[in-house]
Amino acid sequence: MRASARRGAPQALQDDPGALIRRGRYALDVVGNLRAARACFELAFRTAQRDGDHEGMAEAALGVGGVWLYEQRGVGIVAGILSMQRQALAAVRADSVLAVRLRARLAAEADYHVGEHSRVLESLAEARQHGDAQAVASALSLAHHCLLGPEHGSLRHDLTEELLLTAVRTGRPIDQLMGMLWRTVDRFLDGDPHAERSLSELSDTLRQQRHQAVGFATEAMRVMLAIRAGDFDRAEVMAADCARRGEACGDADAPIWYRGHLFAIRWFQGRVGELLPTVQQEAHSPGLGPIDDSHFAAMATIAAGEGDHRLAAGALARLGRGDLTRIPSSSSWLVTLYGAVEAAAELGDAETAATAYRLLRPHARLPVVAGLGVVCFGSVEHALGLASLTLGNADRAVAHLRSAVRENLALGHWPAACLSRHRLVQALTLRGQPGDEREAAAELATADCERAQLGMRSPRTRPHVIVTAATPARPATDAPESQVRVLGPVDLTVDGSVREVSGRRRQAVLAVLALHGGDVIGTDQIIDIVWGDHPPVTATNTLQSHVSHLRRLFGTRVAILARAPGYALNLDVDATDVTVAERLIDLGTTAADPAERARHLQAAVRLWRGRTLMGLSGSRWLEGEAERLDQLLVHARQALARARLDLGQHVQALGDLEALVREHPLHEQTHGTLMLALYRCGRQGDSLGAYQRLRAALRDNLGVEPSQPLRDLEAAVLRQDGDLDLSGTRSASVAWS
Questions:
Q1: At what angle do helices 620-646 and 668-680 cross, to 10 degrees?
Q2: Which of 186, 298, 348, 437 is deepest in the core (most CB within 10 A)?
């Protein structure tokens, strides 16, 4: 028992665990003072344990966990809290609601410490089955906290909406507040244009309820918005005030979030070098999250910019223990990868840039936001453009950086837009196509004007970020025309003739080279992917043999070039069926004419000849790529169906939509498109039947109802809304997509 807790309560209160728990609940749920609540709950647990009050022990053990996960820091303190919760769980009935809540808390803490979420989702399912609304609300909030990675957006949204509905059942203001907070966080993480609207609504509610911990998180988001606006002086004052509020309520993240705010301010001011000693010291702080590598990324970025390349390379090597693919998904994942790209650009590190590009590519449209909306470094497109610059791919760099400027303007992130313009000038100058010089001059003039208005220093960019090894010469004009195909069995075509690749590992080597899109990939990384954690001692020699065999299949040695530290595929722009598919899908999802969209998307879909990378299993990296590309196919098929609906081809769209629904029985967007197609074919009953089947599947498998847009679509089908007819295509098909 902490002496401070004993001194803070009268003797009569110390002897009454029920009174201590009520006081702790008021401090936690109503006032939001985490420190005061912890003191009450710790004392309540010891008193209840002394009295043999098992339910009191459980209530106190739950309370001491607090509002967030990993709310208290330090190995000894965390171990003590876990010990309380496990003792309490062992003391209460296994089927009691207190046991359900304790299992959810323990599962969430365990998942959070390793960047996973399977255990807490199992506990959430148990809470739903038990039926206690408070247990469900608590489990939903804990599960949400474990799902802050960029790939979790859809699931986070579903949890948040369920929490807001469950809050109505519990009647507890804290549940409503947490639902509103998570919805606001979700929208900032997703780059939703309505995020600030959610923040205003949350702030209005806090003016009535004044919960200190939620208020601290809300204020941190307001600091982030001030940085986006380029109001650095005001943001710095707000950040200090926010830190004081966090410290006052006992939030362990207060100093960490303050340093994050300060780093973002100095980064955009061009003064981040001032923070290197602080970042070096804080990178090893026990107060950081258990899987947070962002401080190492920050150290690498600053050190590289300051010319300390040894320190920068050492910090980069700490990320994922030298393998970026091993960094667990979390709220700091995007900003960590962003830092890795910036450091790699300064160091000319092609391998890091290439790996970061592949990892970030699926999240191109997201903002680089860390924590619960604490800091934002602009669009992921900027990092993709910079990585492409480092790899010498000027065309790709220009495309990404143009998108970065647009995305940052849409975010209202003026400093990030300014930095993206400067990098775009670099990319255009490097590319040197007709018109690039004029565009670069215009972008530079705009960027310099914005920089002066915002008080930003001129960005220090390396004059030659290009890695020579990553830009091999193109094949001679008389070389055979070749393409690697991975959207099905791995093979290649030469002058239109298919050439089979024998041997599973040889296929894997070719697939790895193809999926790196012409970028250099290190020998060690190829071996890790193809042979796994325990490669034979002959792996390097065997790899060389496989490369020689593949060159013979291509009919030219220059198809695969040896470039330190490994190899690069050296073919034309459409060197792989993946490149062609991605280009066609981009065209098919951005064209204004539905006929043009359908033509491009149909051509893309036809490129798949079966399961991606068919026959290659046992490699986590390849399996991840296969899953990504198969999801790209689903996206293309869905977009094709919507284009056909826009053309009035309802019957033609039905076949693929029905197949998609069978393959993905829980996918709401596909069901919505199917409902619309059935309705337009005059099959209103079948359209409503499709909705009911989805509703039953969601209830049985996830315990949730269909989303509001889909419920609105069902209502429109029931009343035969005129907007569902072909003349209402845009409003009907886009509203829920």
A1: 20
A2: 298
